[in-house]
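Morning run. Coffee first, then this:
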Amino acid sequence: MNSEQPLLSGVNLHKQFKMRRSASSSTGVLTALDGIDLCIARGETIGIAGESGCGKSTLGKILAGLIKPDNGEVLYQGSAINGLSPESFSMFRRSTQMIFQDPFSSLNPRMRIGDIIAEPCVISGKGTSSDRRSTVESIMALVGLTPEHYNRFPHEFSGGQRQRIGIARALAASPSTIIADEPVSSLDISIQAQIINLLQAMKTEYKLSLVVISHDLSVLRHLCDRVSIMYLGIIVESAPVSKLFQQCLHPYTEALIAAIPKISAGKQHSRSILKDDLPSPMAIPAGCRFHTRCSYAKDICRKEVPPLEEKHNGHYAACHFSDLIFQ
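And here it is:
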């Protein structure tokens, strides 16, 4: 990790949501985040992985300043964003943009594409109308759209094209960080590689930091410098991507990696399959949160919460037995 001050970081982030009471939760409280720490250095690409319901999207929205944590702080260049002046917070919001998961619902159907992409410039007061038109057309060309698309509406585009529009809108604000929430999950396989390659090209072109949220570890392996694995509101493992795939240190990560489809003519190795469903975030298990699905679990796992510890240089895991299991 870069030793300089992080560009963006989350410190001890907590977030709960009030829900209807149910048989599984008498309190009606859904715990989305439960003490998350995360740092993003300049020029770094961080991946956040985990199953649906683990809190990934909530973390992304909090880092982008779209929702507030119940406790903890988001720091932008070392300063807590909740203490920024209105002018400084506006600068933070321009510099930290988000690409949303669903390209079909994240674009205003009543706005033309050129106006959608130009909206961040209009909000921030950047340039004249003619300047903005020129800027938007330049960005459109970079993401594979043409000037002829400028006056069309979202319904006239495919899912892949709409995601390109979302990327262009994020770039229009001249950000330093882009948070991409499942940027390819709703797209056909044939289009996913195009969007991944586009994100990589835009990172290089604009010298961006990226936070890529995905349930697909194969996407993060291709894109990221580091990956953090989330489970029921906490990070259970975090490591440089090469170390994570060479030797993971948490049973949950092992199961996620084993679930990646592989093409091989040889003998298939035995695969670690997750048993049972993800527990409800309204009824989080005691002890290690993963023990209800872990084939290695022992009595201590049901009683004591394993801390997230640095097991090797830059490689963190929250498992009582990682040193024994993953020798």
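The mean pLDDT is 90. Good start to the day.
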